[in-house]
Design a protein that fits this description.
Layout (H helix, E strand, L loop, with lengths): L12 E4 L2 E11 L2 E10 L10 E2 L2 E2 L9 E4 L8 E2 H8 L4 H8 L3 E4 L2 E4 L3 H15 L2 E3 L5 E3 L5 H5 L5 E3 L8 H8 L7 E3 L23 E3 L7 H7 L8 E3 L20 E3 L22 E3 L27 E3 L8 H7 L7 E3 L12 H11 L5 E2 L2 E2 L2 H14 L1 H6 L13 H6 L3 H8 L4 H5 L10 E7 L9 E6 L4 H12 L7 E5 L7 E3 L17 E5 L1
Parallel strand pairs: 7-11, 10-12, 12-13, 13-14, 14-15, 15-16, 16-17, 17-18, 18-19, 19-20, 22-26
Antiparallel strand pairs: 1-2, 2-3, 3-6, 4-5, 8-9, 20-21, 22-23, 24-25, 24-26
Helix pairs in contact: 8-9, 9-12
Length: 531
């Protein structure tokens, strides 16, 4: 007997053994007899073609070999929500039927039958279902809501549901389940490939008490988030990781109650996308792990001022990204409420071999930080970091126009852009004294002058210049010198050098905090400048 195919099979999610797929075609596939299902596999390695068979295209796949035809009896279309709950919590009808054969008991030679025990079991089951508050039916093949009002009659007290990794294929199914649970506060429907509304929907009270919503790996777009958001008036936490979200739009009159937003593992177009969500008034925690961002910038204010963007943001995670410039760390000091930062696994972290020094630099640059990479910053550590920072860059401050005399203290813009907190640290602890800075000078042997040629290979009109520079001079200070020569901001300059001994070999000068001697630069070498 042929398996029955649901009337709404097209677009439904199915299980075939342990593999998941989406039904893309229902019908005949000549010359083979009978009805076939054309499916697109979640794992394209499972497939055979792109929906084309013997020259006829029956359906389309994202992957050229992501499709197959299977017989309906090989496809599991899943179960309704209540069936999954009963199965998971041992409250299904099959178990009661089995218990029905055990409703007779023998006392000696006499057999006694307990009349009405089935109805008692039914009542007990109803009571038990109604007591459920927090349930998980993860990976239970849930695909439908079931009969109308059956959930509200049976287990109306549920507040927290884990529906992740099931066979739910549409937002309507989610709404049909949630509409029967008046007190629903937490909903996790991650790892379901769901069709979301493409146009604005009428606002209902279905999710009026929903505080936490997880939509990780559901293929939702930010546009679809905003279309559904009017229905989430009390939402506080929204998890959207791994959804191929690349561009954001500004939420207008929605998500205004949001306190936590997770956009991790979405490759955002650039860091400027964050400006579009920067005015969510209550957002306290933003997770941006592995989003591909290479820089952060809050352009509404200059250094030393607090931005109006992200007014409530306390905790920020930007680990596993492509941030390589200290300017992005400087920008974070503009956030008025930032207290906790996670930033490991960025190229910037490789600029300093000593993790302790790297930590000190970040602490000194962000004034209000209390926790860095999950480790608390104690007051003594902050004070030490700020005092060391003030000493380390003291000579750069003097070279840039800094002075112990307040009337003559006019460090240039290049220095202030690289060290925006330096003036406030001088106000806090006083300007570094001459004796402190002398201790920063390397010994005479290490402080030898190097005669270097400075060239701009891509600007032939710029003539090469010969300069004598101390080998203890940091790359950052070299950029400051070049700023005065070329009038190009150091942040835009890319430096490298060619050794006079190794012709044609170019070494990148990629760490602003390292001295020239770190790169083994010698007399007669040529520094190449690009921008």
């Amino acid at each position: 007997m042929a398996a029955r195919v649901p009337s709404d099979a097209l677009g439904r999610r199915v299980l075939c053994g342990t593999e998941r797929a989406t039904v893309r075609y229902v019908g005949s596939v000549p010359p083979a007899a009978g009805i076939w299902l054309g499916v697109e596999w979640d794992d394209p390695q499972r497939g055979k073609h792109d929906g084309t068979y013997e020259g006829t295209q029956y359906f389309k796949c994202r992957h050229p070999r992501g499709g197959s035809f299977i017989r309906p009896n090989k496809a599991n279309f899943g179960v309704d929500f209540l069936t999954a709950v009963k199965d998971r919590y041992g409250l299904n009808d099959d178990q009661d039927a089995q218990q029905g054969t055990e409703n007779t008991f023998t006392f000696g030679k006499k057999t006694v039958e307990f009349v009405g025990i089935d109805s008692v079991a039914e009542q007990q089951r109803q009571v038990q279902l109604n007591q459920l508050v927090d349930i998980s039916v993860r990976e239970c093949a849930v695909s439908q809501a079931g009969q109308k009002e059956e959930i509200s009659r049976t287990c109306a007290n549920i507040r927290h549901i884990n529906l992740s990794k099931n066979l739910i294929s549409s937002w309507e199914t989610v709404t049909a389940i949630a509409s029967q649970l008046q007190n629903l506060e937490t909903l996790n429907i991650s790892e379901n490939k769901i069709r979301f509304p493409s146009t604005s929907t009428s606002v209902s009270s279905v999710f009026s008490k929903l505080r936490i919503l997880a939509l990780n790996q559901t293929e939702i777009t930010w546009t679809e988030v905003l279309l559904c958001a009017p229905g989430w008036p009390a939402l506080e936490e929204l998890y959207l990781s791994s959804n191929n979200i690349t561009v954001l739009e500004r939420p207008e009159n929605v998500l205004q109650t949001l306190k936590l937003l997770d956009l991790s593992d979405n490759q955002l177009l650039d860091g400027n996308q964050l400006h579009l969500i920067a005015h969510l008034p209550r957002l306290e925690q933003l997770m941006l792990r592995n989003t591909g961002i290479s820089s952060l910038h809050f352009p509404d204010v200059g250094f030393g001022c607090k931005t109006k963007m992200f007014p409530s943001l306390k905790r920020l995670a930007i680990n596993d990204n492509k941030i390589s410039e200290w300017s992005s760390i400087n920008e974070l000091d503009k956030l008025p409420s930032l207290r906790s930062l996670q930033c490991h696994n960025n190229p910037l972290m490789d600029t300093e071999k000593n993790p302790g020094t790297l930590r000190q630099l970040i602490i000194a640059k962000i004034s209000q930080l209390e926790v860095l990479n999950k480790s608390e910053i104690l007051p003594a550590e902050r004070k030490g970091a700020e005092l060391d920072y003030r000493k380390i860059f003291g000579n750069d401050w003097l070279a840039a126009g800094g002075n112990w005399n307040p009337e003559k203290n006019k460090p240039n813009e290049e220095f202030l852009a690289a060290h925006p907190r330096y003036p406030s640290l001088c106000l806090k602890y006083g300007a570094p004294e001459e004796g402190e800075l002398k201790g920063q000078q390397p010994s005479t042997l290490k402080n030898q002058l190097l005669t270097l040629t400075i060239k701009c290979p891509e600007k032939p009109e710029q003539k090469p210049v010969e300069k004598k520079l101390p080998e203890s001079m940091t790359i950052q200070r070299v950029k400051g010198l070049l700023y005065r020569l070329l009038k190009i901001p150091g942040s835009e300059l890319k430096l490298s050098y060619e050794s006079s001994k190794l012709e044609g070999k170019e070494v990148e000068l990629d760490n602003d905090l390292k001295p020239l001697q770190f790169y083994s630069i010698e007399n007669g070498d040529c520094v190449l400048v690009r921008w």
